[in-house]
Amino acid sequence: MINNLGSGGAEKLLEESLPLLNKIEGVKVDVLLLTDVKNVFEKNLKEWAININVIPLRKTYSPFNILYIRNFIIKGKYNIVHTHLFPTNYWTSIASKLIFKNKPSFITTEHSTHNRRREKFYFRFLDRLIYSNYS
């Protein structure tokens, strides 16, 4: 799960790594995007038979994404959910609290050594709370 497939480094990492994962027997890779704006890597991923899903809201910062993420995870019956970037990390962490049966493992990748949210006390506290939901 990631905000979009724009031309950033996290998005490029997905473009390069997901086809490799998808080749592994028994592994099925799907991608959930908060928005489909500037999806420069989508075509390449689809060529590798990777399913690209976009939340219909197409609004990165809408808290309603939480419900779509929850339903997507439940419907997909995933073993592992891997998130990238803010706010996808936040929305998925909260959605994980709304899954009560067959909960997958949740992991996240922070793609920067600097995080402006850590400069504010309340965001440092919130980050600790959010990231405590990940394996």
From TrEMBL:
Pfam families: Glyco_transf_4. Residues 8-129 form the Glycosyltransferase subfamily 4-like N-terminal domain. InterPro entries: Glyco_trans_4-like_N. It comes from the Bacteria. This is Glycosyltransferase. It comes from Peribacillus simplex.
